[in-house]
Amino acid sequence: MIVFLNNNLIDVKQAAISPFDRGFLFADGVYESIRTYNGKLFRYEDHIDRLMRSLKEIKIDFEDFGSLQKIIYDLIKQNNIEVEALVYIQITRGTAIPRTHHFPTDKISPTLFISVKELIENRDEQENGVKVILQEDIRWLRCDIKSTSLLPVVLASQKAKEENAVEAILVRDGLITEGTHTNFFAVKDETVYTAPKSKMILEGITRKVVLEFCLKFKLDYREEFIEKDDLKSFTEFFITSTTKEITPVTTIDYWTINQGEPGKITKSLQTVFKKITEDY
Ligand code: PLP
Questions:
Q1: Is the CB of 205 under 6 A from ligand 1?
Q2: How far is CA 151 from the centre of its chain?
Q3: Long-range CB contacts for residues 107-110, cutoff 8 Å, separation at least 24
């Protein structure tokens, strides 16, 4: 595997980071995941805007965006990825000795790491739906930043895996925020609901695409928190992300929804999504 680390395309076996990198010591960094359709990076500008915003919010000075796209396409080529690629970009504040909690006083260069891998599509999940579990949202109060500090979601994801679920949906003070790495949607009376843009969720690019579809096809939608205790009043559920696209949710904990069948509106949104990504 060839990766990009600090201005070099190198074999992953040669890639090395200082133990004093603040990403390693403090998870002092942010990341992005982008995928391709037909070999072309999907909604690249949206992902880069979100990355820039995350960097700004944690005050990391990184401006070298001009060459990023070329580096990513070079990496895809060098790794001989023939079908679709999933790209991971991580930027940390950089390396500073000695370790201090506050930002280093001397100017340091951020560490930029990019890797790519072949994206394996999970058609079964998309067609038949998935099980999710509910877990308490114990993350910090800036979930709008795509921070590499992911321990709460690592633990919730592991719990989901142990329960044969594909995702843990997080609940804060009785309100559903989002999944560990997806946004959560519910449907009732032909209206689509999802948590509002706020510090409690990451504004997913796929979430944005789905809301654009709703506007375009005149499907009512509300950006409102769904109460955990009100879940049973909804008739369809789905999760969205770069890799999961629009995936129907057919089981929540021990509740099988709609006899395990993906919902009608979920399926129509999937059809539109498929069309735009096939033509991308
Ligand atoms: N919410 C969280 C917490 C995430 O980590 C992600 C993606 O990783 C998403 C939502 C979905 O975002 P996107 O659609 O941009 O992949």
A1: yes
A2: 15
A3: 109/6, 110/60, 110/61, 110/62
| Annotation marks residue 274 as catalytic | no
What contacts 62, CB < 8 A, 6 or more positions away?
55, 91, 110, 112
Question: Residue 174 and residue 177: Cα distance in Å, rounded?
Answer: 9
Give the predicted TM-score (pTM) of the model.
0.97
The pLDDT of residue 215 is 97
DSSP 146: -
43 Cβ below 6 A of ligand 1 = no
Rounded distance from Cα 78 to ligand 1 centre (Å): 27
Distance CA 25, CA 14 (A): 21
Residue 216: pLDDT band (50, 70, 90) is: very high
Distance CA 226, CA 247 (A): 18
Which residues, in sequence order, are bridge partners of residue 56? none
Is residue 66 predicted with pLDDT exceeding 90? yes
Beta partners for residue 88, in sequence order: 33, 115
Catalytic residue among 146, 199, 267, 275: 146
The three-class DSSP label of residue 160 is helix
Peptide bond just before 104 cis, omega within 30 deg: no
Å from CA of 99 to ligand 1 middle: 31
Confidence of residue 110 (pLDDT cuts 50, 70, 90): very high
Q: Which of 31, 86, 176, 182 to mutate to test the pocket of ligand 1 (most atoms within 8 A of CB)?
A: 182
Q: Is 204 in the pocket of ligand 1 (CB under 6 A)?
A: yes
Ligand 1 centre to CA of 154 (Å) is 14
Beta bridge pairs of residue 176 = 171, 226
Q: Is 202 in the pocket of ligand 1 (CB under 6 A)?
A: yes
pLDDT in tens, 115-142: 999 999 999 999 999 999 999 999 999 9
